[in-house]
Design a protein that fits this description.
The structure is a single chain. This protein is mainly beta and about 110 residues long. Helix content is about 0%, strand content about 45%. The protein contains no helices and ten strands.
Length: about 110
Amino acid sequence: GGGSYARATNANVTINQGMISDSVYGGGSNGYTESSNVNINGGTISGNVYGGGRSSSTIEAKVTINSGTMSSIYGGSGDYGISGRTTVTIIGGTMSSIYGGCSDKNM
């Protein structure tokens, strides 16, 4: 998605297939992202999927899961991040849990 300690206006992540051994974030790490879009069309993700960033703020985050296997889905940010408006759309796939908002100690 976005960069580390940077500002991104629009960040887009699309995964069609493959194996990812960690989590996927739509926004940046310790940065600021205005709008993020995460689209998962297949593959296996060992970690979670976040619409927002890691330890960062995201104004609008959208997650769409069409297929694939992953742990949990969060519409917002992770690890102390803040997200404004989140949208999670699940069409298919295998996951353990789905949350519309942020994870951990978020506001």
